[in-house]
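wait is this the right file?? whatever heres the structure
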């Protein structure tokens, strides 16, 4: 999937505050959106509606938990492929259909498709990469993590 930047002014100050607040995670309560709403001076319905709108316009690509596969005995691996331009859409469809593909990005580089495999076991990485190679007839380059860095994402207000 190709994404263009959102037009300037698409996100207002409240959208930005909500995005930043959501980076901290949802409180584990019966009504987590009500707590976030109270912190931001909004209503619970406003928060739910804004999250839905942010998803619809592509400001966020998904909304849900992020599981640490490694903590549960699994593995992550960054992968890249060199996909001929005329085949990109067909290949992205095949790659994204693989359940172990966590997210996928197009880059303006010889290695123009980058994605993350998240598997239940470390052996699953090789199996998923081999399955993608069979289905696409293209080489998957795997770049296993050597060191983990934690970064925060914030939207400028």
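ok assuming it is, sequence goes like this
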């Amino acid at each position: 999937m190709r994404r263009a930047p959102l037009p300037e002014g698409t996100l207002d100050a409240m959208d930005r505050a909500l995005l930043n607040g959501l980076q901290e995670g949802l409180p584990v309560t019966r009504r987590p959106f009500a707590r976030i709403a109270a912190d931001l001076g909004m209503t619970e319905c406003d928060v739910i509606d804004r999250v839905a709108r942010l998803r619809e316009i592509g400001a966020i690509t998904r909304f849900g938990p992020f599981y640490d596969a490694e903590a549960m005995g699994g593995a992550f691996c960054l992968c890249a492929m060199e996909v001929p331009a005329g085949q990109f859409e067909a290949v992205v469809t095949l790659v994204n259909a693989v359940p172990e593909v966590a997210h996928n990005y197009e880059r303006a580089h010889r290695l123009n498709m980058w994605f993350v495999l998240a598997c239940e076991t470390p052996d699953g990485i090789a199996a998923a990469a081999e399955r993608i190679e069979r289905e696409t007839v293209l080489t998957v380059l795997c770049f296993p993590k050597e060191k983990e860095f934690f970064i925060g994402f914030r939207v400028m207000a």
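The radius of gyration is 18 Å. so i think its the right one actually
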